[in-house]
Write a structure and sequence with these properties.
By secondary structure, the chain is mainly alpha-helical. It has one domain. The radius of gyration is 17 Å and the shape is flat. It starts with a helix and ends with a helix.
Length: 83
């Protein structure tokens, strides 16, 4: 049980690092002068923040959504079938 809690804390910290890294890239992009902005910073910011958000939303889904509904969501997501 202790190892699962430590693992969850590590995953949440990793997600927070991704989100804050994405925020730093977006901040860098927005603070540069308009003529010298690099769109790569914006793209990296969105990608890192999205990855962190995906991790957090996956954890929330695992905790809050009942197992039978989660099974249907995963079937739709990974197999591409609705019915």
């Amino acid at each position: 049980m202790e190892n699962k809690k430590v693992g969850l804390v590590i995953i949440v910290l990793l997600a927070a690092i991704f989100i804050f890294t994405g925020g730093a890239f977006i901040y860098k992009h927005s603070k540069d002068p308009m003529e010298s902005r690099n769109p790569l910073y914006l793209a990296l910011g969105i990608a890192f923040a999205g990855a962190g958000g995906q991790i957090i939303s996956g954890i929330a889904q695992a905790i809050l959504v009942p197992p039978h509904i989660r099974t249907h969501i995963n079937e739709i997501k990974f197999r591409g079938k609705l019915l």
